[in-house]
Amino acid sequence: MLHIIAMKDEKIFLAHGAGGKQTRVLIESLILKYFNDSLLKSLPDAAVVSIPSDSERICFTTDSFVVKPLFFPGGDIGKLAICGTINDLAVSGAKPAYISCSLIIEEGFSIQYLEKILKSMAKAARKSCVRVVTGDTKVVEKGKCDGIFITTSGIGIKRYQVPSGLQDIKPGDAIILSGVPGMHELAVVCSRENLNFDMTLKSDCAAIDGLIDGVLRVSNRIRFMRDPTRGGLAACLNEIASGCNFGLKIYEDKIPMTEQVRSICEILGFDVINLACEGRVVMIVDCEDAERIVSVMRKHPLGTRAEIIGRVSCECSGRVILQTIHGFERFIRMPSGKQLPRIC
Amino acid sequence: MLHIIAMKDEKIFLAHGAGGKQTRVLIESLILKYFNDSLLKSLPDAAVVSIPSDSERICFTTDSFVVKPLFFPGGDIGKLAICGTINDLAVSGAKPAYISCSLIIEEGFSIQYLEKILKSMAKAARKSCVRVVTGDTKVVEKGKCDGIFITTSGIGIKRYQVPSGLQDIKPGDAIILSGVPGMHELAVVCSRENLNFDMTLKSDCAAIDGLIDGVLRVSNRIRFMRDPTRGGLAACLNEIASGCNFGLKIYEDKIPMTEQVRSICEILGFDVINLACEGRVVMIVDCEDAERIVSVMRKHPLGTRAEIIGRVSCECSGRVILQTIHGFERFIRMPSGKQLPRIC
C-alpha cells in the first residue's frame, strides 16, 4: 500500500487531510508503517493507556516544532519533536511513557520527506522506549504553512520526588551543565544559511532521559533541572534565578566548550550563552552531591563533558552573573528581541 | 502588563516566540490572564498532574486545528480546539481532565484576535471543568502560516468500561445520532465564502461531555461512540462498519434535520451526510437501551433532536446503506477527494 501511495502521490494533497479515503490511505500506508503501536492501529479518538497502579502523579507536556530547515546536521524536525518532548518529561523527574503526534502539512509537501521524518521520529521514540499512541494529520493549502509543523505532547510517569523545586534552591548549591552549549542552534543556523564553516558541526539534538535517569539513581538532592532550549543558558538561568530569588554565578572557564563552537560564535558574533541546545541539561543540586553527579554524567555518552559551571549565591538575588575568563564579572540578561527564529 | 503589551505591540512579532523577554511578557500578560491554572503559572517544562488513585487507565488524545476563517458563527478556532479535544475524550468513555495548548502564530497576527481566541478557549475549558495545564507558543515569519494554528492534547480519566468496543457490535444494535448533522461545516463554509443565506445558521461546535455523561449513567451497553467530524456521518459510519464487519443501515427520514440545513445543502449541492459536526455524537448501543438513551439525550440541551437513525445489520457487511425518504437504498461511501479543506 505504501508503494501505491508513493507511486501515485509523490506529494501531499489536500485530500490527505480531509478525513476520508485518502487520509485513511496516508495513515495506513505511511504513518502506521512507522508508528505501529497496537494502541494506535485502531485509530481511536483517544488512546486508552495504562499507568502503574502506584503512580498517582503523571507529567504532561506539549511543544510545537517549526524548525527551518527541516533537516539539519545531527537531526531533523522529527527527531527534534520526539527528543524535545522526552526531555521536557525527563527534567520533570518523570519516565517518558506516551507521546502524541500531530502533523500540519503543506499541500505539495514531498511524501518522501514525510516518510524520512516519520522514520526519524519512530527511531527516536524506540530508543527511549516511548510509545507514540495517538495523533492527527491536517493538510493546509500551499503557501499556508512551511512544509511541515509537528506538535508532540507527552505523558510521563512521575517516579521521583526530585527535582524538589525552585523553592528548595539555596546558596551554595552547584550549577551543573551536561555538555557543550549552543551546538543545536549553530548547526541549524549554519545549515539554513549555507554556512559551511565546518562540516563536522552537528546539533546536540538527543533524548537525555537516560542521562537524567542515571543521575536520579545516585542523588535525591536535585533541586531543579531544565533543558536550555530557546534562549539558551541565558534564558534558562535567568528563569531559575528569578524563580528562586538567589543569584546564580557562573564561570566562563568552566563552561564546556570546543574550539569549533567558540570560533563559529566569534565569526557570527554570537554569544554562546544565548544559543539553544536540544540535548543538554542544567541542574541545580546540593553541593555535596555535585561531584558525584558530574562523575555519573561523564560515564554517559551524552554527558562526557559535564561540568560544575557555577554556584547559587546570596549576592545579586534574582540575577545571573558571569565571571569571564579574564576575571571580570558581568550580568547575563534574559535574551531580548527576535534573535534567531525557528530553531526548534 | 496586559495594557503594556496591548499598547506597545498590537501585533505578534517574532520576538514573542524567541523564548526570551518578549515571550515571557506575552505569556504572563496575555496567556496566563486567561489560563490561570495554578499548575501553569510556574511555567514548568511539564505539568505534574494528579490522577485518582483508583484509575489505572487514562485516555490521551491530540488534534491540530487549522480552521478558516478563525471566527465563524457559533464559535472560533479556540472554542473548536478545546471542544474537539474534550469530545474525543468523552466518546472514549473518559472524563476530560487536563488539556495542553500549543500555538503556532504568524508574525503580524493581531494580539486582539489572539486575546479573543484565548478567552474563548478558557471559557470552553471552564464550562467542562477541564484544566489547561501546559502549553507552548511558537511564532513563524509572515506568510509561513495562516494566522494561527492550535494544537490541543487532552488527558481524561477512564471511568467506565463502556464503550466496550467495535468488536462487541452485533446485528440489531441501534445507531443513535444526537442532533442535526453538518451544521459546523455549513457555518464555516458560508462564513468563509461570505454566503449569507441565513444569518441564523450557527456551527454546532460544543463540548458534549455532559451529554455523554448523562447517557453513561443510564446504560452500560454502549458499544461505540464517535463524534462525526471530518468526513461527517459518512466517514464515521464507514469506519464503524469496516471495523465491526457488519452492515449499518440508516434511514434518511430518521436523520434529524432542519429546513435551513436542508435548503443550504440543496443550494450548495452538498450531501449533508458528508459534512462535519463538532458537537454531535454517533452511538452504537444495545437495542434494548436505545429508547432510554434517546430520551436521556433529549433532556440535554445538546441532544434535544436525538434520534435512532438506523440499525446494525447482517446484510452488506462492512458497508453503510442509506434508505432514502423515497424508499430506495443506496450505499454511503467513505468520502473521497479533497472535499472542503480546513473546516477544523
Give a topology summary.
2 copies of one chain form a homodimer.
Chain A: H1 2-8, H2 21-34, H3 38-41, E1 47-50, E2 57-65, E3 71-72, E4 75-76, H4 77-90, E5 94-106, H5 111-127, E6 131-140, E7 148-158, E8 174-177, H6 183-192, H7 209-218, E9 222-226, H8 232-244, E10 247-251, H9 259-268, E11 282-285, H10 287-298, E12 307-313, E13 320-323, E14 329-332
Parallel strand pairs in A: 5-6, 10-13
Antiparallel strand pairs in A: 2-7, 3-4, 5-7, 8-11, 8-12, 9-11, 10-12, 13-14
Please explain how this structure is put together.
Two copies of one chain form a homodimer. With 344 residues, chain A is α+β, with helices and mostly antiparallel strands. Chain A has two domains: 2-158, 2-Layer Sandwich (60s Ribosomal Protein L30, Chain: A); 174-332, PurM-like C-terminal domain (Phosphoribosyl-aminoimidazole Synthetase, Chain A, domain 2), CATH 3.90.650. In chain A, 32% of the residues lie in helices and 24% in strands. The first copy, chain A, has ten helices and 14 strands. Chain A has helices spanning 2-8, 21-34, 38-41, 77-90, 111-127, 183-192, 209-218, 232-244, 259-268, 287-298; strands spanning 47-50, 57-65, 71-72, 75-76, 94-106, 131-140, 148-158, 174-177, 222-226, 247-251, 282-285, 307-313, 320-323, 329-332. In chain A, the strands form three sheets. Chain A has a seven-stranded mixed β-sheet. In chain A, strands 2-7-5-6 form a four-stranded mixed β-sheet. In chain A, strands 3-4 form a two-stranded antiparallel sheet. In chain A, a hairpin with a 5-residue loop joins β13 (320-323) and β14 (329-332). In chain A, α1 (2-8) packs across α2 (21-34). The model of chain A has no long low-confidence stretch (mean pLDDT 94). β1 (47-50) of chain A pairs antiparallel with β2 (57-65) of chain B, so a sheet runs across the interface.
